[in-house]
């Protein structure tokens, strides 16, 4: 800067420090145009739109606390003798990994709190992703153009499960060692390649001396790296697609009604981060999680009852616990169906929800963009499918904790297992039927409210003695909200003969699609929303009918 | 001889033979039975047994038989020893309320003196483990870490890492060891009550039992410290996951609803 210009600026008075810093940055990074384009980005306001934020913030908390933990953790399986401050383990042989986790818990300042924040945040992160995913599912936010982002989210959930699992395995305690052994069994059950995969993963026989170091780099580098990338991509796509919104007056498929990113949304989101951190830190300060000192070091010859994985793997655990121990022996080989079928089912159940958006768009044949969310009742078949899927998932979770359900509700363990076996097949069907009926009932109620207004509970006596209940007509806004959703018509197969009267071949997929479409949008699957004519006809009367 | 031979097919012949045989065995028994048994014994020990027998006839005989020989409703008590009685009655398991997969611990209805009398009576039926002395089970001076290792090797597969209990098949269960006294833990290991295997001194030395008791005392007793905070039952990931969902996510959703409700609305005039 030359002397003259500095003299000039002094004579006009210096710009505020903030402005000068911003100017400096703009000259190098071009932040002004970036800010101009994005500062007024609008986000709609609804509590359920903040579930994704819960996930993002808990993920950030996990990364922050995880970095601290890496400073003290030794990912090694060398055997050492414990001489730390936890008396009931003194003199015990254990791996360095377990030793250093005890060291973090008892001898590093703030170590136990950070460990507990890390673990609680992981449990909440996965739970948050589950709820967020279900919010997106039930409101139909996965429809075009957001299918790719749905897959990004699904991948984040699955990778989160495996990141969590590898993290749970690192301390090499008796609980996690049992979990790793469980996973090894599942890998071994894979026909033909299972044994090789297991040898490859563990560097030979289980447990070997390698898996903690390998899981460590998977847990702190590989998976979180991919997840971070996916999360950034997820957010970029949210920005690019703009956020969805619920139907309402003034809200169309072409606009977003809400608050600008700056300052309102930034302040809210920033504040929300600290609230999330606060809740998790409070839980971590008050409640113990994964007390590895109570579990002791892993030894393959020991096992404890109540050996479950963290909740997000509990569904897989339940599948295996409920499965009968079938196996087939042929030509000197054993196929462990009792483990392999649950392993396959684990993937199948997850893929069911992941691929649903594509099935739905194929059935509807709808290629248009959707930015207005559905109310779950207005998509009864989808909602029923979602509830059926959650039912399968929850039945699996009950199966994973069958021993604790048995002891705490004074039931027979075998009875709980049989319940899980039956409910795995019957539960989703029941849930599907019941949910669909509830949705249709709610649609009827909406239709009734639009046509006849709200029941006020006021009983009026007419001059000739008749009693009537006064119905209060809904406001225009409410009428709009209740009738804004679009309703599909079931797809037809179309003419089976062309203009020349020649019969064409109807493909099987076409028939299936027509059938599914009829199941989705046929007479029994949706209540026609009131048309303008119906509304006019009824409201033109005497206010009572 | 002819006379006898002629009457051997008399309808009453079998009865006469039976009477003669019974008289012969009875006579021989009284002749050869050890005389000392028949002698009256009025020592304190015998009085205790006498009292125990009376209690037994009232509270136990209906299932275990009048002489402890067992019946279809209860096992034989010959040879189970005083330690088994002290455990079963001392923890309220016996007398049982109803048959079932397993008899649970409940309110103790006998005083310790009565339990001792019952134990003395059962011990008099056949040799078995005696009630341990305080010296046997006191956790003082035992090796806690060794006890932990032994516990994880022998007990944890049913009783959980720190003895919080677990499920067994068909409604049976391994109970929580949190409020079980050291004496009863020792007796349970010694006698193997109900579904539990027994760990006699030949399998697990008295010193090792002491180590286990010391370990349980350290990790699942009244003075146990839980460095991480409330331990949510000490049951592992199931209760933690449930807590994370209900209270963790529950609180965060409540906060989200609160934040979303407090929005910068367009000013209403």
TrEMBL record, chain A:
EC number, UniProt record: 7.1.1.8
Catalytic activity entry: a quinol + 2 Fe(III)-[cytochrome c](out) = a quinone + 2 Fe(II)-[cytochrome c](out) + 2 H(+)(out)
Keyword Signal: no
Region Disordered: start-end pairs: 523-545
Domain Cytochrome b/b6 N-terminal region profile, residue spans: 21-247
Keywords of the record: Membrane, Transmembrane, Transmembrane helix
UniProt entry tagged with the keyword Transmembrane: yes
Membrane spanning residue stretches: 49-73, 117-138, 150-170, 182-203, 215-240, 269-289, 330-359, 379-399, 411-434
Classification via InterPro entries: Cyt_b/b6_N (IPR005797), Cytb/b6-like_sf (IPR027387), Di-haem_cyt_TM (IPR016174)
Lineage top rank: taxon: Bacteria
Swiss-Prot/TrEMBL cofactor(s): heme
Record's protein name: Cytochrome bc1 complex cytochrome b subunit
Originating organism: Streptomyces tropicalis
Lineage, highest ranks first: Bacteria, Bacillati, Actinomycetota, Actinomycetes, Kitasatosporales
TrEMBL record, chain B:
SUPFAM superfamilies tied to this protein: Cytochrome c
Subcellular location: Cell membrane
Keywords: Cell membrane, Electron transport, Heme, Iron, Membrane, Metal-binding, Repeat, Respiratory chain, Translocase, Transmembrane, Transmembrane helix, Transport
Keyword DNA damage set for record: no
Stretches assigned to the Cytochrome c domain: 47-126, 142-220
EC id: 7.1.1.8
Residue ranges of the TM segments: 242-261
Principal subcellular localization: membrane
Membrane-topology annotation of the record: Multi-pass membrane protein
Listed Gene3D superfamilies: Cytochrome c-like domain
Catalytic activity: a quinol + 2 Fe(III)-[cytochrome c](out) = a quinone + 2 Fe(II)-[cytochrome c](out) + 2 H(+)(out)
PANTHER family linked to this entry: CBB3-TYPE CYTOCHROME C OXIDASE SUBUNIT FIXP (PTHR33751), CYTOCHROME BC1 COMPLEX CYTOCHROME C SUBUNIT (PTHR33751:SF13)
Subunit structure: The cytochrome bc1 complex is composed of a cytochrome b (QcrB), the Rieske iron-sulfur protein (QcrA) and a diheme cytochrome c (QcrC) subunit.
The protein's name in its UniProt record: Cytochrome bc1 complex cytochrome c subunit
Naturally occurring in which organism (per UniProt): Streptomyces tropicalis
């Amino acid at each position: 800067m030359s002397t003259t210009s500095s003299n000039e600026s002094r004579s006009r008075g210096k710009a505020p420090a903030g402005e000068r810093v911003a100017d400096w940055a703009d000259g190098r990074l071009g932040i002004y145009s970036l800010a101009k384009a994005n500062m007024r980005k609008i986000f709609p306001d609804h509590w359920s739109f903040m579930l994704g934020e819960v996930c993002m913030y808990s993920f950030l908390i996990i990364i922050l606390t995880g970095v601290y933990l890496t400073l003290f953790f030794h990912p090694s399986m060398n055997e050492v003798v414990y001489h730390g401050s936890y008396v009931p383990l003194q003199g015990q042989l254990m791996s360095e990994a377990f030793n250093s986790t005890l060291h973090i818990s008892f001898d590093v300042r703030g170590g136990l709190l950070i460990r507990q924040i890390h673990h609680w945040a992981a449990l909440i992160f996965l739970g948050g992703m589950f709820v967020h995913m279900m919010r997106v599912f039930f409101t139909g936010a996965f429809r075009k153009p957001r299918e790719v982002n749905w897959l990004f989210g699904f991948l984040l959930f699955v990778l989160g499960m495996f990141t969590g699992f590898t993290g749970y395995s690192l301390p090499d305690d008796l609980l996690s060692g049992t979990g790793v052994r469980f996973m090894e069994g599942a890998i071994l059950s894979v026909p033909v390649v299972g044994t090789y995969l297991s040898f490859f993963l563990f560097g030979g026989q289980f447990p070997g001396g390698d898996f903690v170091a390998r899981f460590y780099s998977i847990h702190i580098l590989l998976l979180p790296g991919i997840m971070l990338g996916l999360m950034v991509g997820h957010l970029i796509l949210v920005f690019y697609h703009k956020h969805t919104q619920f139907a309402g007056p003034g809200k169309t498929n072409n606009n977003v009604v809400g608050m600008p990113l700056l300052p309102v949304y930034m302040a809210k989101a920033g504040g929300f981060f600290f609230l999330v951190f606060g809740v998790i830190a409070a839980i971590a300060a008050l409640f113990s999680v994964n007390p590895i000192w109570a579990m002791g070091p892993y030894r393959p010859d020991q096992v404890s009852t109540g050996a479950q994985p963290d909740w997000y793997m509990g569904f897989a655990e339940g599948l295996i616990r409920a499965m009968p121990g079938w196996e087939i022996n042929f030509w000197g080989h054993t196929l462990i169906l009792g483990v392999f079928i649950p392993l396959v089912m684990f993937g199948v159940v997850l893929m069911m929800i992941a691929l649903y958006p594509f099935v739905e768009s194929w059935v509807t044949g709808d290629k248009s963009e959707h930015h207005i969310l559905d109310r779950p009742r207005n998509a009864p078949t989808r909602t029923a499918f979602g509830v059926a899927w959650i039912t399968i998932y929850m039945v699996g979770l009950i199966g994973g904790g069958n021993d604790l359900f048995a002891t705490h509700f004074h039931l027979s363990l075998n009875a709980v297992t049989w319940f899980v076996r039956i409910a795995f097949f019957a539960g989703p069907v029941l849930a599907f039927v019941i949910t669909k009926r509830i949705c249709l009932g709610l649609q009827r109620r909406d239709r009734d409210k639009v046509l006849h207004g709200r029941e006020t509970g006021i009983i009026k006596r007419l001059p000739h003695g008749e009693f009537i209940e006064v119905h209060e007509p809904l406001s225009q806004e409410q009428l709009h909200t209740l009738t804004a959703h679009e309703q599909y018509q079931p797809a037809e197969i179309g003419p089976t003969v062309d203009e020349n009267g020649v019969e064409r071949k109807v493909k099987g997929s076409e028939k299936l699609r027509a059938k599914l479409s009829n199941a989705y949008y046929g007479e029994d699957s949706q209540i026609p929303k009131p048309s303008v004519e119906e509304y006019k006809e009824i409201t033109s009367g005497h206010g009572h009918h | 001889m002819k006379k006898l031979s002629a009457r051997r097919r008399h309808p009453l012949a079998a009865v006469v033979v039976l009477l003669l045989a019974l008289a012969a065995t009875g006579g021989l028994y009284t002749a050869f039975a050890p005389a000392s048994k028949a002698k009256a014994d009025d020592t304190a020990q015998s009085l205790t047994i006498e009292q125990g027998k009376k209690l037994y006839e009232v509270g136990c005989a209906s299932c275990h038989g009048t002489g402890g020989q067992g019946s279809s409703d209860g096992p034989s008590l010959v040879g189970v020893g005083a330690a088994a009685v002290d455990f079963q009655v001392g923890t309220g398991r016996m007398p049982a309320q109803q048959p079932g997969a397993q008899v649970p611990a409940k309110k103790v209805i006998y005083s310790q003196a009565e339990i001792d009398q019952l134990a003395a009576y059962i011990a008099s039926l056949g040799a078995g483990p005696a009630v341990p002395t305080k010296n046997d089970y006191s956790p003082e001076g035992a090796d806690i870490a060794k006890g932990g290792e032994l516990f994880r090797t022998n007990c944890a597969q049913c009783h959980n890492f720190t003895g919080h209990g677990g499920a067994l098949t068909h409604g049976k269960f391994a109970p929580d060891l949190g409020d079980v006294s050291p004496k009863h833990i020792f007796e349970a290991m010694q006698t193997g009550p109900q579904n539990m295997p027994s760990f006699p001194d030949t399998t697990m030395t008295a010193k090792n039992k002491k180590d286990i008791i010391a370990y349980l005392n350290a990790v699942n007793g009244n003075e146990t410290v839980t460095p991480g905070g409330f331990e949510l039952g000490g049951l592992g990931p199931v209760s933690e996951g449930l807590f994370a969902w209900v209270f963790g996510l529950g609180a965060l959703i409540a906060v989200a609803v609160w934040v979303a409700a407090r929005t910068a609305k367009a000013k209403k005039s």
